[in-house]
Structures are given as C-alpha cells and as structure tokens.
Amino acid sequence: MPSFFAGKTILTGEHSVVYGYPAILVGLELGISVTIKSGHLTVTQQKDQYLQRILLLFANFFSISIEKLRTEISLQVESSLPVKSGLGSSAAFAAAVLSELAKFYSCDLNKTQLYTLVLEAENFVHGHSSGADPSIVVYGGLLAFKKGEFKQIQTSTLKNQNFFLIDSGEAIESTGEMVALVAANPYREKILQQISFLSQEMLGDLEKNRFNPKLLDQNNEFLNQLGVIGKLANKKMQKLRKLNAFCKVTGAGGIKAGSGYILAFHQNPIEFEKNLKTTGFSFFKTQLGAK
Description:
alpha+beta; Ribosomal Protein S5, domain 2; Alpha-Beta Plaits; 5-stranded antiparallel beta sheet; 4-stranded antiparallel beta sheet; 9 strands; globular
C-alpha cells in the first residue's frame, strides 16, 4: 500500500496563525500518495530541491547515507491536490515521502517525529512555517491550532456536509511573500485580533455541533483588509455570493493574479453545483474532516 496523506483547508485563521492566534484546520478527501521501491530517481526528481531536502532530513534523522538513499530508490507520486493552491500540497508530499521511506527502510517513525520532520521540510520551502499545515496533514480530522499546539475537535456538524473548492487562479506570489505583505500592513494587529475572535467563535460553535457559514464571509473580509486577496478572486466570490454561497479564500492568498482556492458552502449543494457548472469556474466538491 502506498503512503497517502490528505491535504487541508482552513476554516478560519489564515495569516493570524503565523502570529500565534488560533486557527481552525480541517483535512480534505484529496491528497498525495507515494510509493517507493528499489530503483533510481528520475532526472527531474534528482533536480527537485524540495524532494532532495526531504531525503536529506530523513537520512540525517535515521543516520542513513544520503548518497546511498539517493541511488537505490525509485519514487512514484500520485496526487489529487493542485499545487500552489493553499491546500497543503507541500506538507502532504513531505509526509507521504517520509512515511514511505520509513516503511522502505523498516524505520520506526511515529506521528510526533513525522510532524517534526514535515515542519522542517515546510520551513525549507516556505521560510518559516507556523506548523499549522504539518499538524493537520499528519494528524488529520479537524484541529484547533495555536502556537505549535493543537487539539482534535470532536463534532458531527460537518459530517455529510458538502463543501466546494473553486479555483480563483494560481497565486504568483509565494507564501513567504504574502506573509511579508501582511507584516507591512499598518493595521495588521487589529485585523489579526478580529480574525482571532472569529476563530474562537467558530471553535465554540463546532464544539456544540453548530456551524455558522456566515463566519466564512466575515473571515474573508478580514483577509481583504489585510490586502492578500486579488481582484480576480474577489470578482469570483461576488458571483458566488449572488448564488447565495458563503465563501472565503483558503491559504496565503495572492494579489497579482489568482489567490488560490476559494472554500464555499451552500445550504442547497445540489442547486449550487448546477449553477456552478454554468459559470465555467473550475471546482470540485468535497467533504471535510478526512483522517
């Protein structure tokens, strides 16, 4: 069996989580699976700096020769997660590769160790990770995350609910660039505090088996105030709200082109899906809370 890890979306707390405020994270059905066998890496894989970093982290952790590791494995990747989408693809990829390496070399790798290694990999690709993506990718389900600590949220309210992820276009900017943009916002602290209050409200609702989709719209407005959502994504969300959907950008955002994926909820998903197909938007339907 290949090693599979699901991606994630953020219900509330983008950017504020970087500053130690809480965020609500949830696993997706979509993800990345990796199979490792004896063989050789492809030329593209040999040049992939992120993959090479992950291999080095594993080799150092288990005291395995990196040269030996690089020359005796073949790696096959299958993914249903779009890249640069704010859906946790880099963390899911790292977790799947590391887990599969542990199986191939018969190494014991528990979830705490896996989380630490995925966090180091994320720091390499993003500059400095809050730890949010590694936590939800490794542990799955529904998490409340704050300052590197997290707890599972036990709720039935999201079960069998259909959500939609709509592509607003790939962000040109990196996550690090968007974090720097927020850091330069003179009203940053006040806005982040408002996002924090909203995250706490959603957590309280979920723990009482309630879900208020209006909080998605409110969170998105705060992200707009931070300046991380571009015109293209906002125009698409205007159309979605005319269809009576609640929605927000999920991930770091982007302003020069697309802003990644938009998370949307509708009280009548069947009707909404039919209307979505007439818009020409690229989207997929999903349930949240994958483990």
